[in-house]
Amino acid sequence: KKMKVKCITIYNEFTKKYEKESSWITIGKEYIVLGLTIRLNEITYLIATDQDEMPASQNAIQFEIISGKIPSNWKIIPGEFAFLFILPSAWCEPGIMEAFYDQDPEALKIYKREAMIIYQEEGIGSFRG
User: Sign (positive/negative) of CA torsion 52, 98, 115, 107?
Assistant: First the structure.
């Protein structure tokens, strides 16, 4: 089993209020964590969201940890402004995530390859993202 979280509440970052539903995540649903970011006073999980299964950062206060085991391809990478990234090292190459969100075919291939490793280690045969 790899790092998995369960959504227990929904917090709207813009309104600073708790809500009953979101198009991104669902209360009660479990998500495999693809990576995480640690800031001075905040942790965010990178998960494939309900909306389109594209990865999105979600505030950790919305989740409880079901399984805390770390995928084999995760690395700890220091960032600027006291950030700490814990995610597949291939995703930390300069510009790779921007290229991924721009639908660059090579970046998408790298994203899917690394996500597949995480999902397969969880025992899920395919990654739909």
Answer: positive
Query: Beta-carbon neighbour count of residue 51 at 10 Å?
Result: 11
Q: Tell me the per-residue pLDDT of 42-95, one tens digit each, with 9 for 90 and over.
A: 999 999 887 766 788 999 999 999 988 889 999 998 877 768 989 998 988 888
The 10s digit of each residue's pLDDT in 91-111 is 888 888 889 889 899 999 999
3-state SS, the chain, equals: CCCEEEECCEEECCCCEEECCCCCCCCCCEEEEEEEEECCCCEEEEEECCCCCCEEEEEHHHEEEEECCCCCCEEEEECHHHCEEEEEHHHHCCCHHHHHHCCCHHHHHHHHHHHHHHHHHCCCCCCCC
Query: Tokens for 2?
Result: 């790899």
